[in-house]
What we know:
- The chain is an alpha+beta fold.
- The chain has three helices and three strands, in the order E-H-H-H-E-E.
- The chain has one domain (5-78): Histidine kinase-like ATPase, C-terminal domain (Heat Shock Protein 90).
- The chain has helices at 19-22, 37-40, 46-56, and strands at residues 5-11, 60-66, 70-78.
- The protein has a three-stranded antiparallel sheet, covered by helices on one side.
- A hairpin with a 3-residue loop joins strand 2 (60-66) and strand 3 (70-78).
- It is globular and about 40 Å long.
Amino acid sequence: KENGFVEFSVKDTGIGIPTKYVGRIFERFFRVDKARSKEVGGTGLGLSIVKHMAELQQAKYGVESEVNVGSRFWVKFKSA
Length: 80
């Protein structure tokens, strides 16, 4: 809880997301590496759902990522 907001975040130490794709990862069905789709799985809907749920709650959301280091996804809700 900070400055009237409560933040929920998820951090990984995966391959990271190239800067040129960061602005698109919340789009429906967007996959950074389509060649790995069958190998990794998923549909590209998860972050789109997060985006829409955050917007319904008037929350802020985003991602910080560095290639070969990992990513941190966050959602900030107004605290009651």
